[in-house]
Structure formats: C-alpha cells, structure tokens
C-alpha cells in the first residue's frame, strides 16, 4: 500500500492537465465541432501561462492567460469551421502546427527557465480519509477544481436545458435550428470554451506541474486527449478515468526511470502512446456496427442553414 | 449581413481554383509578415532573404530540391490515403520505420553486390513503412478505429524506437555522444550527383506519375476514389472496403518508408536523430495544397522547399527560429482552407426586396 499510494497520487496529478483538455474537447465535440488542435492549444497555453506567471509573479494570472490564449487561438478554428464551414480535420491540424510553432517561436529565449507556480495544500478534512485522502486530496487547487469541473459538466450536459440544447446541436443541427436555437452561436461558444480549457490544460503543465518552460513540453498529451474523448464515449466522468489511466502509466514510467531500471528509457516513454492506442482499439471493438455509441451524429459536419440535404 | 447568401459553384474553373489558392498563400505570407513585424523583424527583408537563400544561388536552388524530395514523397503518401478519405497523419512515423529498416539492412546484411543491397534496402524500407501504415489501416477497416489518432500514436512510437536504437545498439562510438549511426558504406548509398542531389529525386518523380496514372486510369484507382467519396455507395457496388483500406494504407506507408530510406541512404548517408524535420506533417499540407493532384504535387513541394530553405537562411541571417516556418505552414493551411469557401461558393449580393404579392 505504501508503494501504491504515491503512484496513485502521482497518477491524479499527471492526469489532471489531460482532464482539462478532454473536458474542453467533449464540450466542443458535443456541439458538433471536432478540434484536433489540442496539442497546439496546450502548447500555446503552456507558454502563455509560463510567460504571464514569470512577468506578474502570479500563477493565478498565468492560468488565466493560458485560458485566454487557448480561447483566442481557437477563434481561428471556430471561424473557419463554423462560419465558413471548412474541413475540421485540416483546420485542427493547422491549429496544432500553428500553436506548436508559435509557442516554440515565442518561447525560444526562455527554455529551461523556472517559475514559482501553485503549491499543493491538503484539502481540509477530506485529506484524512484513508486511501482516498492521500490519493485525491493532497494536491493543488487546480486538481480540486478539475474534480468539480468533471461533475459539473456531467450534470450540465445530461441534466440541464442548455446542456440538452448543446446535445441537440451536435446530434441534429437542423432540428435544433428548427426549434429556434442558433446552431452557430452554440458551436462558437462551446468550441471557444473548449479551446480555453485546452489552453488551461497547457497552463497547468507549465505553471503547476513542471513550473518551467520546455519546448514541446506537452509531448503528445493533446493527441492523447483527443483519443481519451473517444475512450470516454463523450461522457465526462468516464473520460476522467481514462485520463487517470494515462496519468498512472505516465507516473509509473517516470518513477521507473527515476529508480534506474534496466529497461531503456525510450521503451518506458513509449508506454503512454501504446496504452492510448490500446484503449482506442478496445473501445472501437466494443462499439457496435462501426458507429461509436455516444458519438455526436453531426460531429465533423458543417451546418449551412440555407442548404438542404 | 442579412440578405447576403452563399451559392454553391457547380464546378469551379481551374483558373478560378488556382487564383484562389494563390491569393490564399499570399494572404498567409502577409499574416506571417504581420507576426514578424510584431516580433520586431522586418518582414520585407525576411522574405527577401528567404528568396535569396533558396533561389538566389545554384547551391540554394539545389538545396530547395533536396528539401522538395522528401516532401514530395510524404505528400504522395498522403494523397493516396486522402483519396480514400483516410486521414493518414502518420507519414512521419512510417518514414522513420523505413529509415530504420534500411539502416538495419545496412548493418546486418552480408550482401556483397551493390545492386542487391540497394534492391533489398528498397524492399525493406517499403515493407517497414507499409506495415506501419497497414496496422492503422487494418484497425480502421476492421473496427473503425480512428486512424488520425492511431497513425499519430504510431509517430510517437516510431520516434521512441529510433531513440532506443540510436542511444543504444546502433550508436556510432565515434559520434561523441551524438545520437547517430556510423556512416553507411559507399555501396549502401543512393546515387548522389551535383553536390547533394540524390536518386530520391527520380523515385519521387516516377512515383508521382505512377500514382497519377493509377488514380485516374485504372479500375483500382477508381475503386479507391469511390471509397473516398462515398463509402456506402462503394459497399453497395461490392467494392471490398476492408481490403482496399488496408492496401491503401500499406502503399501510403510504403511510400513514406521509401522517403525515409532515400533520406538516410541518399542525403545523409547515416541515420541520425532529427533526420526528418517534420516532413510527415509537411506532406499533409502539400497534399492538401495540391488539391490531391499527384502531378501538381512536386511543384507545390518545390514551393514548400523554398519556405524550408528560406527558413534555414532566416535562422542564420536574422536569428529567427526554425519554428517560424511551422507557424507559416499553419497559416498557409488556415488561409487555403478559408479560401476554399470562395472556391466553391459565390457570395450573392442582397437584391432590392422583391415586390410582394398582395395577400
């Protein structure tokens, strides 16, 4: 048990940035807009968070800047995909490239510089619960907020009227339009919020998790997040477990590297990607007739009001 | 805005298409210039230096072609997959696997005849890249596993495999810790001419013609296009979807694998970490820019080569990081995508309200 608890706690910490990115992507995809640019958005957010924390000395402002950077960059994607009805795959890939390049360009003079970020604190009372306490309640405030976010989103999507509208827009935009909802307004809103959360995910990496700037520091977490949305069949709580599974593998391989095993580091580094591929195959085999259970029906298809199919 | 509406152009003319693409690229370069200006870099000078570095001398021109070779190959790999509406974003991993297979062959084979070595390197790299593509293809065909994620994970896994070998068994003891293999023996090099140009150029051009002809003139090419345009229709007329998806992904990966081989055996003469500077991703862009036209692709790849060589020049002359090239690539993709709407739609001006019939 004494060996397991630190690993589980590290899994939660390491999974948290992915939780933010995955929750953002669930919102965007539920509205029908696929955003493959997460990797770039996370990198932009990571640099914005690092830079703002460094210049203001406030990690809170840093995280706000990360959210803002993610939202701002996603505006390009939303404009191309919602207003112009462009190809969401291409736009997302472009966003990933643009964000990665931009963050590297802006951050080139700061590689390896450290900042003082958010510190962990024990959550009152809850941290004393055996097992649960040390694993879940001895982290920083962003981890606690991520728990709230996941349960809030579950409630929002499945139990509130705006959430129902969101699902309607993603499942059948034409019907939603006929009901008097504005499809493009909803898609803009949720795509932008989703992009902001991806930025925040990157901010968590630089401001809280590693407290420094490293070029390409997301190391594929953005793409892994896209896969985990599918694994979570577009449901926040289920996707959260996927994130902690990733976090667990990541924490485990880091620990094994630190402990100096005879397994070469590249093999350990490969594990999160193999796991992601594994869970993706697993969930795809389980879903029936090629159509994923819970995939929003209009995902990836632009909506043009004046055109009829 | 009320009253403005979009009307689909039934078949946009080639001239219109080309001019839209040209304007889009110019818009992207203008946006890139704006970003440079924000970073206190004179954009006019930067673009001038890029052109001078790439087209201003024979060396620069040859270097542009050297860069255009791998981009053409990865672009062809993408065209093949995209024609079938399969998003192979894994050319990067497939070319790494091709390079690994070629290197493995150079290290472990006992073949003497230079011709035999080249043929086997060819086959090994195509097979390795092809398998790296066929696996996501199989997963896609069999269980509809998202190929974008599967191929991307393949990129990361291939990069880890390369690190494993380059920091381990394959490391050149004389490289002073730098992750690269010992130089290939002369018998295991592709033909190199005019400085750094190499036989990869002919592989790329021949494949471009072959793919163009296959796609336009053969039954199989037709089947692949039907799968790409309308998978339901393809199933209805009895085209084997599963078989074709695996085959397309195998061939797509094989071309990328050849690209890896041509880079290590043609250009560098050894396998080193970072031998591919994101050519797999650049391939996606050029394939899209060329409108999935294999004959047009080498020219687009040449233009992209100007950007890459120019980027190298900027790094040296003006201290701009290489990542600025990635930014411009992203911008080009954004602008071309945005331009697409003008390619396929025309904006109708609001007319004076029509006289309504009396109720």
How many whole angstroms does the radius of gyration of chain A measure? 19 Å
Total beta-strand segments of chain A: 0
The percent range for strand residues of chain B is under 5%
Distance between the termini of chain B: 28 Å
Radius of gyration of chain B: 23 Å
List unreliable stretches of 5+ residues of chain B.
none
**Domain tally of chain A:** 1
Largest sheet of chain B: 2 strands, antiparallel
Structural shape of chain A? globular
Instruction: Give the C-level CATH assignment of chain B.
Output: Mainly Alpha
The beta-strand count of chain B equals 4
Mean pLDDT of chain B: 88
What's the CATH topology label of chain A? ABC transporter involved in vitamin B12 uptake, BtuC
* Highest CATH level, the class of chain A: Mainly Alpha
| CATH architecture verdict of chain A | Orthogonal Bundle
- Beta-strand content estimate of chain A: under 5%
Description:
The complex is a heterodimer of chains A (309) and B (359). Chain A is mostly helical and 309 residues long. Chain A has one domain (4-290): Orthogonal Bundle (ABC transporter involved in vitamin B12 uptake, BtuC), CATH 1.10.3470. Chain A has helices at 4-30, 38-56, 59-83, 88-106, 132-136, 141-159, 161-171, 173-178, 183-209, 221-231, 236-259, 265-286. In chain A, helix 1 (4-30) packs across helix 11, helix 3 runs antiparallel to helix 4 (88-106) and helix 3 packs antiparallel against helix 9 (183-209). Chain B is mainly α and 359 residues long. In chain B, helix 1 (14-38) runs antiparallel to helix 13 (323-344). Chain B is globular and about 75 Å long. Classes of the chains: A mainly alpha (309), B mainly alpha (359). At the A-B interface, helix 3, helix 4, helix 10 and helix 12 of A face strand 1, helix 6, helix 11 and helix 13 of B.
């Amino acid at each position: 048990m004494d060996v397991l608890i630190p690993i589980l706690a590290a899994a939660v910490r390491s999974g948290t940035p992915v939780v933010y990115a995955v929750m953002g992507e669930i919102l965007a995809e539920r509205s029908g807009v696929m955003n493959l640019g997460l990797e770039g958005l996370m990198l932009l957010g990571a640099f914005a968070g690092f830079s703002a924390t460094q210049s203001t000395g406030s990690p809170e402002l840093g995280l706000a800047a990360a959210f803002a950077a993610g939202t701002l960059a996603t505006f390009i994607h939303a404009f191309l995909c919602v207003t112009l009805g462009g190809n969401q795959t291409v736009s997302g890939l472009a966003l990933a490239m643009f964000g990665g390049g931009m963050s590297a360009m802006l951050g080139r003079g700061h590689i390896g510089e450290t900042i003082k970020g958010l510190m962990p604190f024990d959550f009152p009372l809850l941290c004393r619960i055996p097992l649960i306490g040390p694993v879940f309640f001895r982290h920083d405030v962003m981890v606690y907020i991520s728990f709230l976010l996941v349960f809030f989103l579950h409630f929002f999507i499945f139990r509130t009227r705006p959430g129902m509208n969101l699902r309607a827009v993603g499942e059948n935009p034409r019907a939603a339009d006929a009901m008097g909802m504005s499809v493009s307004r909803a898609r803009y809103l949720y795509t932008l919020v989703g992009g902001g959360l991806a930025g925040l995910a990157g901010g968590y990496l630089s401001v809280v998790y590693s407290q420094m700037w490293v070029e390409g520091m997301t190391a594929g977490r953005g793409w892994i997040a896209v896969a985990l949305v599918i694994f979570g069949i577009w449901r926040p709580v289920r996707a959260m477990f996927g994130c902690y599974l990733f976090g667990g593998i990541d924490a485990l391989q880091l620990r094994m590297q630190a402990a100096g095993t005879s397994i070469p580091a590249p093999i350990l580094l490969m594990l999160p990607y193999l796991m992601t591929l594994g869970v993706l195959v697993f969930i795809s085999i389980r879903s029936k007739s090629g159509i994923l259970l819970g995939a929003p029906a209009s995902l990836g298809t632009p909506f043009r009001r004046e055109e009829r199919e | 805005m009320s009253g403005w509406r979009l009307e689909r152009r039934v078949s946009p003319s080639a001239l219109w298409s080309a001019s839209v693409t040209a304007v889009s690229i110019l818009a992207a370069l203008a946006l890139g210039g704006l970003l440079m200006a924000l970073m206190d870099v004179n954009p006019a000078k930067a673009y001038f230096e890029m052109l001078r570095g790439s087209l201003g001398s024979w060396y620069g021109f040859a270097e542009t072609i050297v860069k255009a070779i791998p981009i053409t190959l990865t672009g062809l790999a993408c065209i093949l997959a995209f024609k079938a509406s399969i998003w192979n974003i894994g050319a990067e991993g497939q070319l790494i696997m091709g390079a690994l297979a070629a290197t493995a062959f150079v290290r472990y084979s006992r073949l003497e005849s230079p011709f035999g070595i080249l043929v086997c390197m060819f086959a090994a790299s195509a097979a390795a890249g092809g398998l790296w593509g066929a696996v996501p293809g199989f997963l896609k065909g069999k269980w509809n596993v998202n190929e974008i994620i599967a191929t991307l994970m393949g990129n990361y896994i291939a990069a880890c495999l390369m690190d494993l070998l380059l920091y381990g068994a394959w490391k050149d003891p004389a490289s002073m810790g730098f992750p690269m293999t010992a130089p290939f023996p002369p018998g295991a090099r592709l033909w190199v001419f005019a400085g750094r140009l190499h036989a990869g150029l002919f592989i790329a051009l021949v494949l471009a013609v072959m793919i163009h002809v296959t796609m336009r003139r053969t039954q199989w090419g037709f089947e692949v296009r039907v799968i790409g345009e309308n998978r339901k229709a393809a199933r209805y007329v009895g085209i084997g979807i599963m078989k074709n998806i695996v085959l397309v992904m195998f061939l797509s990966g094989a071309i990328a694998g050849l690209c890896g081989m041509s880079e290590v055996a043609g250009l560098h003469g050894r396998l080193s970490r970072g031998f591919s500077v994101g050519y797999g991703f650049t391939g996606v862009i050029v394939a899209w820019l060329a409108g999935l036209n294999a004959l047009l692709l080498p020219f687009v790849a040449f233009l992209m080569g100007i950007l890459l060589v120019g980027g190298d020049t900027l790094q040296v002359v003006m201290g701009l990081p290489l990542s600025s090239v990635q930014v411009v690539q992203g911008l080009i993709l954004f602008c071309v995508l945005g331009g697409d709407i003008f390619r396929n739609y025309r904006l109708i001006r609001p007319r004076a309200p029509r006289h309504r019939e009396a109720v």
